[in-house]
Amino acid sequence: MKAVIALIYLVLVFAVIAPVKAEDSFVVEEIKVNGLQRIAAGTVYNYLPVTVGQRFYLNQIAPTMKGLFKTGFFKDINLVREGNALVINVIERPSIARIIFKGNIDLSDEALGEALTKIGLSEGKVFNRQVLEQVEKELRRQYFSHGKYGLRLETEVANLTRNRVGIKVDISEGSVATIKKINVVGNSQFDMAKLLDEFELTTSNWLSFYSKDDQYSKQKLGADLERLSSYYLDRGYINFKIDSTQVAITPDKKSIYITVNIDEGDLFTLDKVRLTGNLVVSPEELIQLVSVGPEEVFSRKRATETSKSISDRLGEEGYVFANVNMIPEINNDRKTIDMTFFVDPGKKVYVRHVNIAGNTTSRDEVLRREMRQMESAIASTTKIERSKIRLQQLGFFEQVMVETPPVVGAADEIDVNYKVLEKASGNLMAGFGFSQTQGLVLNASVSQNNVLGSGKRVDLNFNNSDVMTVYSFGFYNPYFTDEGISLGYNLNWRETNSGNANTAYFSMDTAGASMNFGIPINETDRLRFNLDVNQQKLKDYSALSSVGIAINELGSEGSYTTFGGAIGWSHNTLNSAIFPTSGRQQRLSASATVPGSDITYFKLGYKHQEYFPVAKDLTFRVKGEISYGDGYGDTKNLPFFQNFYAGGVQTLRGFNDNTVGPKEGGKDTGRPWGGSTKVLANAELLFPVPFFEDNQSMRLGTFFDAGMVSDGGFDTEYMRFSFGLSGTWLSPFGAITVSAAMPMNTKETDDEQRFQFSMGSNF
User: Fold this and answer.
1) Which fold has domain 95-172?
2) Which fold has domain 426-762?
3) In the chain, ranges of CATH 3.10.20.310 domains
4) How many Cα neighbours within 13 Å face the side chain of 536?
5) Does domain 269-344 have CATH number 3.40.50.720?
6) Superfamily of chain region 25-92
7) pLDDT value of position 121
8) Residue 576: phi, psi to the nearest 5?
């Protein structure tokens, strides 16, 4: 028996190792490929183990066919020998001519097409019916991630000419499953409501129709879980973990219940805080940047802020690739952490080139004079960012972007690349409003803030309304000298009919000229000086009126020549001239006519506005203004035609222009007279337009205005309040501003104007 087994074994071994017989092979003299339509013959040749002139063995047929099938191009393959010719007969798979989606609303054709491309199905590709199952699986995944669990799909394949197919996907999206309840299980240190405030997802509320925050999304839930984790880590619970998350959907696929199981862990405090490594900067200076200290509850957020602050400080010295690593040593027994900040500055980096792109109108020199980061100098993150902000403050660009790519082959060099998107710098502004007293009011002005790309500004204003006729010309050069000293001048002529402007009945002709210049103090502060001369002529007034009495007190028979000067200080840290989101702007000014003028008076003013980023697309702005004026010398009071006024879209919305404050003769009724004191305050919450969140040219706001004008000191009698909605659109035709205000604490004598509108066009 053993001999028989051994004999069989030897036969099998011989069969495996024996060479193929001559009749099982042949020398290929020709290779033919039949059935190709779109596929090149070379593609087939690449998968053949033989070429013309070589011997082809029959046991190579199976692996050859397997290799050709793997290409996915063919649905049938046959190899035949005809004499000494190798003939390959193929049937190509059809190509996809088009993919059509029907019934999709929430997800666009482009989004669905991109999803199918990732699994290898797109127009022009070879069609494989086995892929259809993957198509439906991928589409369901896309819709499920958007909470569409009632989805129904029907896929239809139609044969077309030239061996092509068309794929049609009929989609019934169904309704979005909404969240009915979110539970956090395992919390003992913080209330459920406080934890759920960290979630973007929530149960249905009155704003859900807009925010969609009650619609389940896997991505949003993942982000919420990350925020929950950060909430605990920032409060000392470093061992916090999420044990599990359950998402349950009701049988009708309309309601979702979310349960998050957590393990809070123990509270940890800091024991020791160390600063080690190559500090480069003096330790005393870096220690001031450390915002965490011993015996404090550990906060990952503050530790990260410390690391960034140190890294930014090193970046100011040229170490732009500095790493500040946080190394915690955890003592679980004592529930303490020893935190070490290890500083690795890397190499000091220099700037090779500063490149600017996108300025098709503005001259290169106009942008380069705003640069604070110089070429061949040590790279400074502060100077690079400051240069970007200065470009944004010009107001010439819709967007400014900066990149700092390293120079290939140089470990200590970078390029600084600024890319700008220009906007129209010329403005043709027109505004109008409607009131019971004035009816329709129109005005217009023309300005060019960047003449011929030079950065200089020219203003031409004209107004020919019932209130006034104005002609003025202004010129401003922000870089009269290379050091940044500015120079400007203005010529104007104005004819005013105050009786049509909600003020006392009189007319005035004014001709004036002024010159101003500014001196930069530092990057954010500037001093301004102004010299002016004016000729004013009062006319068309009654000697018995309040105007006539006031003119008699001033003397000079209503004709006044004044010489004046002004000094001002400005501070600007706004991050943009257009729709800023952070920063501060302050202006302090003092002006006066000099002795020798027909009338002598002075004015003081202070303006302040500040922006606070509340969230990604939410900005809070506060504004305030205080103005005061009075006469001196022979002029007892501030001349009445220099009085301050309030009311209107620029000061106190909800009230007609110039109507807030004292009336003529000091009465509650009569023509508005204005006053020597003005106080304004505004708070506004700014946010993007619903459904247009990505549009950077539109913004809405909810505001609260407060304002007062009095004749000498703060007088609550004249204080008025309003609230409402505002909107601004930087349209191709210019800025369009709309406000709808609700006046508060009004009196019967107040002139309300609840809707205000202004528009302008760019050229």
Assistant:
1) Ubiquitin-like (UB roll) (3.10.20)
2) Porin (2.40.160)
3) 25-92, 95-172, 178-263, 269-344, 350-422
4) 25
5) no
6) membrane protein fhac (3.10.20.310)
7) 75
8) -165, 150
CA-to-CA distance for 146 and 178, rounded, in angstroms?
11
Element (H, E) at 134: helix 131-144
| Cα atoms in the 13 Å half-sphere on the side-chain side of 122 | 12
The first and second tokens of residue 689, run together, are 């337009």
Q: Angle at the Cα of 671 (from 626 to 536), degrees rounded to 5?
A: 70
Per-residue CA distances from 80 to 24, 31, 36 (Å) = 13, 10, 16
Tokens 């203004």 belong to residue:
625
- CA within 13 Å, CB half, 46: 9
Q: What would be the CATH architecture of the domain defined by 178-263?
A: Roll (3.10)
Q: Are 465 and 494 in contact (CB under 8 A)?
A: no
- State the sign of the Cα–Cα–Cα–Cα dihedral 433, 435, 439, 445: negative
pLDDT of residue 541: 64
Shortest CA distance to 340 belongs to which of 283, 284, 274, 294? 274
How long is the chain?
763
The pLDDT of residue 699? 87
Enclosing H/E stretch for 354: strand 350-357
Structure confidence at residue 4 (pLDDT) = 41
Q: What is the pLDDT of residue 763?
A: 35
Element (H, E) at 624: strand 618-631
Q: Which residues pair with 510 in a beta bridge?
A: 494, 536
Separation between Cα atoms, residue 606 and residue 626, nearest integer Å: 5
In Å, what is the CA distance from 88 to each residue of 45, 62, 177? Answer: 10, 13, 55
For residues 14-35, b (16+ Cβ closer than 10 Å) or e, as one string? eeeeeeeeeeeebebeebebee
560 contacts: CB under 8 Å, gap ≥ 6 = 534, 535, 536, 537, 554, 597, 598, 599
Domain spanning 350-422, CATH architecture: Roll (3.10)
Instruction: Report CA-CA distances (Å) from 454 to 371, 373, 380.
Output: 16, 21, 28
Q: Which residues of 371-393 are buried (b: 16+ CB within 10 A; e: fewer)?
A: bebeeeebbbbebbbbbbbbbbb
pTM of the model: 0.60
The tokens 């369901």 sit on which residue?
140
Q: Which residues of the chain have pLDDT under 50?
A: 1-22, 433-441, 544, 761-763
Calpha distance 23→62 (Å, rounded) = 18
Give the chain's radius of gyration (CA, Å): 39
Collapsing DSSP states into helix, strand and coil, what is residue 557? helix
